[in-house]
What we know:
Elements: H1 16-24, H2 29-42, H3 45-54, E1 60-61, H4 62-69, H5 73-85, E2 89-94, E3 97-102, H6 105-120
Antiparallel strand pairs: 1-3, 2-3
Amino acid sequence: MPHPADTLCSCAEEHPEAIARARTQEWPVQRLLALAELFKMLADPGRLRIVNALSAGQRLCVCDLATLLGVSQSALSHQLAILRRARLVRPERAGKVVYYQLDDKHVQDLVALALEHVSEQGVV
């Protein structure tokens, strides 16, 4: 953990050009809110387990996911509904069976990149 003194600037002067460049990169509020919501959806370990289970590119039915993750179908359905609303997973009905898969490759890439970052820190 950084020492508090490491987070303070000792030059005591602003750098207007750097501030102006950074200001051009600021995100609109709507984009910030959408991004924060996405990360909030992925901040739940149970939902991350679901995303991980679907990351192999295969589709799994609710029964298989519930068995794999060791949770009730009811609890799983609740989490899948949250992930569905966030457009992280999508259902596909085949008769009476509902299969789930990741909504698109971006979801898999996002989680893989985050996992790579965590792995570089020696956490995993």
